[in-house]
Amino acid sequence: MNGTAPLLEVRRLRKWYEIKGGVIPHLIGHVQAVTDVSFSIGRGEVLGLAGESGSGKTTIGRCVLRLIEPTSGEVLFEGEDIGTFGPERLRKFRRHAQVVFQDPFGSLDPRMTVGEIVSEPLEVQKLFPNSKERRDRVVELLETVALSSEFLKRRPRELSGGQRQRVGIARAIAVNPMFIVADEPVSSLDVSIQAQIVNLLEDLREKLGLAILFISHDIVVMEHLSNRIAVVYLGRVMEIGPTDELTSNPKHPYTEALLSAVPDPDPALRGKRIVLEGDIPNPVAPPSGCVFRTRCPRAIAECAAAIPPLREISPGRAAACIRL
Amino acid sequence: MIEPHKLLGVRDLSVRFATEAGPVLAVDRVSFDIARGETLALVGESGSGKSTAALSLMGLLGAAGGATLSGRIDLRLKNGSTHDINRLSARELRRVRGNEMAMIFQDPMSSLNPVYTIESQICEAIILHQKTAWPAARRRALELLHSLGIPNPEKCMTSFPHQLSGGMRQRVMIAVALSCEPRLLIADEPTTALDVTIQAQIIELLKRVQSWTGMAILFITHNLGLVAELGGRVIVMYAGRVVEQGKVAEVFSHPCMPYTQALLRSLPRLRRARAPRQRLQAIPGNVPSAVDRPAGCAFHPRCGFAAKGMCDTRLPALEDCGGGHLAACLRWRDIASGKAA
């Protein structure tokens, strides 16, 4: 993205949820879901956001679409701060930025037909006001995701998991967006169906020039789809860089452990496994200094002293660890 | 009757459910054995019947659930006698569960009781199955939690399930399961709800426990990577039937059944930049619904090798394709020799 502005830029994004307690409810703390996260996504680029449960990856995805309001920080889309958008401007923004959710059942209205689900965004955005043209567009979209006009009248419960996820994807690309957030889009699918959806996302990216924020706990699928990967832990970015560099030569101890924990059908290929001890700490009271130090095999006393900044270690590659 | 070194022998196990959409044959004439101390993985996608098979081994599927079972499930008890699980009374089953075999489930939150402490839940299992008193049971529970790597066992004992993380809850479930020293542990997707770093902890733990106790593990999963990690033997199920079985290393390096081949190929693998990015080889179509299974080989509509007039009409039986490696495919010889197009 030489010289040109990125499509999406996230600057020091923070989302802390207030916790109230006591007899007279007052603020007693914060759930520090996301703290000072910065990254950018270029046009047509796929950025993977890898992390375990509680890492804040879904919160980040919702903040960049302003489905929830961040506590502080900025999200710039084509250079404009989406935090300043009023309702009308926000609706226009959503014409360019869409979302695919994990659970393809919970995110589709059970009372609507597939045709209604896919045409709703077109109606909201007042695209294709002519109903015949709109119907043609819906059929075209269903064909794009390898379904057919037969599905128009069906309801979500009549579909398999993979078919439902295809409908979710058709709905997201209906308005021809430039950017989608895909939040664990293949996690609930069977192994043999996962590959179909991964291939579909790959095709769409090529055909439509889509930029994707691909959120997943599955770093293998992410390695396959993403140009770059950001690894998050307890609401903070631990490491970010081009996919192949990051997976072949992880710098941050957490990235290393995450990659080594992935089981492979050929155990000889996996290499040495690093088994992390303990659990992800409570985001209400994260460890001082580096948040990963309580589970880190390489932690030293200094790790508790200060929060390590995300430092550039090579062009386009950065990690937050004082021991590098 | 089963051979002396076998712990469990399943013969022609079928499970039928009566549903609104008609009768469903969830498990169709499944046979396998488990030897003492062995690890056997049962792998398949949703609807393959793997969990139903596991539940029936524990005698947890009965007429009350609308299930009809047939076939034999012979279990050798600690006292040397063998019994068919399908023919035990509720009372006899209670004696077998816990003491002879125990089960852990995918979601430890819903398998633990939210209103009781961990202490009372582990001790309940011990007192119920082993007729000991509370102080002894409590000592045993503490010992177990300690050996399972729970950082502060005393504190864990007084906790409620919601106060523990997913990994800790699964450790507690394992403690309950191990409390009466069963010789067979049935683990139904025990790590599916957990993060990969926690999954790695639980797998290491199960392997360690197995090496101390010498118990056999039946591990049910959809994750082929985990199967390889565990080693031992594997059974691949598709649409209620066993389609391939053998030693994990053998089945994964030379799969004979096209479904196993396709499944292994469709799996994204960590490249770590060692190989160029390649498009995933997806398996076309969907897993067939249990009420409407294809005739002949259930995999034939999705199979690249399916032959008309053969695979769509004849049901393949399991055949030995070398050294105890079994596969259910009419064309495995042609496929192996490269003659099948």
- Cα Rg of chain A: 21 Å
The percentage of residues in β strands of chain B lies in 15-25%
SSE string of chain A, helix = H, strand = E? EEEHEEHEHHHEHEHEEHHHEE
Anisotropy-based shape of chain B: globular
What distance separates the N and C termini of chain A? Answer: 27 Å
What percentage of residues of chain A falls in helices of 4 or more residues?
A: 25-40%
Query: Given the structure, what is the number of helices of chain A?
Result: 10
Distance between the termini of chain B: 43 Å
Tag the structure with descriptive keywords.
heterodimer, A: 324 residues, alpha/beta, 8-stranded mixed β-sheet, 4-stranded antiparallel β-sheet, 10 helices, B: 341 residues, 32% helix, 23% strand
Describe the structure.
The complex is a heterodimer of chains A (324) and B (341). Chain A is α/β, with parallel strands linked by helices and 324 residues long. Chain A has a domain at 107-176. In chain A, 30% of the residues lie in helices and 24% in strands. Chain A has helices at residues 57-64, 87-93, 114-124, 131-144, 161-173, 191-208, 219-225, 243-248, 253-260, 267-270, and strands spanning 8-21, 26-41, 46-50, 72-77, 80-81, 97-100, 179-183, 211-216, 228-233, 236-242, 311-314, 317-319. In chain A, the strands form two sheets. Chain A has an eight-stranded mixed beta sheet, with helices on both faces. The longest helix of chain A has 18 residues, at 191-208. The model of chain A has no long low-confidence stretch (mean pLDDT 92). Chain B has 341 residues and is α/β, with parallel strands linked by helices. Among the domains of chain B are: 101-181, no CATH class; 258-270 and 292-341, no CATH class. Helices cover 32% and strands 23% of the residues of chain B. Chain B is built from twelve helices and twelve strands. In chain B, the strands form two sheets. Chain B has an eight-stranded mixed beta sheet with strand order 6-7-8-3-9-10-12-11, with helices on both faces. Chain B has a four-stranded antiparallel beta sheet with strand order 2-1-4-5, with helices on one face. In chain B, a hairpin with a 5-residue loop joins β4 (67-76) and β5 (82-84). The N and C termini of chain B lie far apart (43 Å). The chains are: A alpha/beta (324), B alpha/beta (341). At the A-B interface, α6, α7, α8, α9 and α10 of A face α7, α8, α9 and α11 of B.
